[in-house]
Design goal:
Layout (H helix, E strand, L loop, with lengths): L3 H13 L8 E5 L2 E6 L1 H4 L8 H9 L3 E5 L5 H8 L3 E6 L2 H9 L5 E3 L9 E6 L13 H10 L1 E12 L23 E8 L2 E2 L3 E4 L3 H10 L4 E6 L4 E6 L1
Helix pairs in contact: 1-5
């Protein structure tokens, strides 16, 4: 990983305090064209967050782990509210940003290498993306389950992206022999530099629920968003 995402986060954070100019990130996938991801969105305040994320923050309690914390928008909000929160990310740049922002406990760490236990685990902004592929979901869920204290909860959001395969006549052009339709190849570039492509998984709620049942987790639909997105609570 070249950590282009982390570089963009650092540039944006530094640009707030200097003349340094950050640019927006450009993203695209194997089924969608180029799109701009505005950097300020990654630093969104509670008021600017989608309702699903606000709800997750309202439900967070006890010792919290923010998985894939990015700029720390969720972690900082909870820390400021007085919660005991650890922020982790595989991006060095992201962790540098959250440290500069004053996070008390942050670490460059892959979720699969986490060993502490928590009362709440947050995975937000398509939290299932981190699982990468359908065949890896059970491995991640089992590991997340092992990190839960008694009565602990995992709060995770995702979307059913079936709509991305819909044509103008309302038909679907999905290849039924292909892998699960939510498995995407995800590309990002920043200031003309391309990141090594990653796999990014969008999971519809029913598939997530089935996967949870197979590893002994209860999966509850907490809230549906405005565009096929949802927040789930796993216990
Ligand atoms: C879509 S961003 C979301 C950032 C932040 N949660 C937000 O809502 O703004 C996903 C983040 O997950 C991180 N990530 C990806 N795979 C990870 C893993 N296996 N363990 C920890 N973090 C990971 C990425 O580096 C990135 O910062």
């Amino acid at each position: 990983m070249k950590d282009i995402f982390g570089k963009a986060l650092l540039d944006y954070y530094n640009s707030i305090f200097s003349d340094y100019e950050a640019e927006d990130i450009v993203t695209w996938t194997n089924i969608s064209d180029k799109d701009v991801l505005p950097l300020p969105y990654l630093f969104r305040s509670y008021k600017e967050m989608p309702k699903l994320e606000q709800k997750a923050l309202q439900l967070a309690k006890g010792k919290v782990l923010d998985v894939g914390c990015g700029s720390g928008c969720h972690s900082m909000y909870l820390q400021n509210k007085g919660l005991n929160i650890k922020a982790i990310d595989i991006s060095k740049g992201a962790i540098e940003v959250v440290n500069q922002r004053g996070m008390k406990y942050a670490e460059v760490l892959d979720i699969l290498d986490e060993t502490e236990t928590f009362d709440t685990i947050l995975l937000l902004m398509n939290g299932t993306g981190i699982f990468q592929e359908l065949k890896q979901v059970s491995k991640y869920l089992k590991h997340l389950k092992s990190l839960l204290n008694p009565n602990g909860q995992i709060l995770i959001d995702s979307s059913d992206i079936k709509y991305m395969y819909e044509d103008e006549d309302g038909g679907f052009w999905m290849d039924t022999n292909a892998n699960y339709y939510g498995e995407l190849d995800y590309f990002i570039s920043y200031k003309g530099e391309k990141e090594i492509p990653i796999k990014w998984l969008y999971l519809d709620f029913e598939t997530l629920k089935l996967a949870c049942e197979s590893v002994g987790l209860q999966c509850e639909l907490v809230l549906e968003g405005e565009h096929f997105d949802y927040l789930a609570r796993l216990r």
